[in-house]
Design a protein that fits this description.
By secondary structure, the chain is mainly β. It has a single domain, classed as Jelly Rolls (Sandwich), CATH 2.60.120. The protein has a six-stranded antiparallel beta sheet, with no helix packed on it. A five-stranded antiparallel beta sheet has the order 9-8-11-6-13, with no helix packed on it. The longest helix is centred in the first third of the chain and has 6 residues.
Length: about 180
């Protein structure tokens, strides 16, 4: 695995290091030792799968507040998604900046989302499937979110929005 810092402090793209032979490919998707050696969270308590019927579907932007703040490790296992993070940490040099990248079954990239970041994605293909691990259990009382279309963030979604949950449409705009 190769750890590539993104422009937002503390976030990383994780590149696979596949080995290929006549059978196909093999790559480690996670290694506690490698994550720890890079100063990253290496304990994950839950894994989630999210499928999306239609390209253009947006899920997010979600986060959990302290004391239930979580790290996420997000990978697309089928199709492609445009994965987006927003630095929500007060005092951070990259506060309220966003970064987005395509994660796909072809490129094998994973996004490491640190505590204090909001996260969301847009399905780029019908049937896109995201698999992500989290470092804290879901705590509804600590849940928060940002509007996908908040003008202060001006996230550049690559497609027209085709689907959005009622909850995600109701998050408050930033002041």
């Amino acid at each position: 695995m190769r750890f590539e810092p993104i422009p937002l402090n503390g976030g990383y793209l994780i590149h696979l290091d596949p080995r290929t032979d006549q059978r196909g490919t093999f790559a480690r998707a996670f290694c506690e030792q490698d994550f720890s050696a890079n100063g990253l969270e290496s304990v994950f308590v839950q894994a989630n799968v999210s499928t999306n019927t239609r390209a253009g579907t947006v899920r997010g932007m979600h986060f959990q507040r302290d004391p239930h703040a979580e790290v996420k490790l997000v990978r697309c296992t089928k199709g492609a998604i445009y994965d987006v993070v927003v630095d929500m940490r007060e005092g951070s040099a990259t506060h309220l900046r966003w970064f987005g990248v395509e994660l796909s079954e072809q490129n094998g990239l994973a996004m490491y989302v640190p505590k204090g970041f909001a996260h969301g994605y847009q399905a780029l293909t019908d049937g896109a499937t995201a698999f992500y691990m989290v470092s804290a259990f879901y705590a509804p009382q600590s849940e928060g979110g940002l509007r996908f279309d908040d003008p202060r963030l001006a996230i550049g979604w690559p497609r027209a929005i085709s689907e959005l949950s009622d909850k995600d449409a109701r998050w408050q705009l930033l002041a």
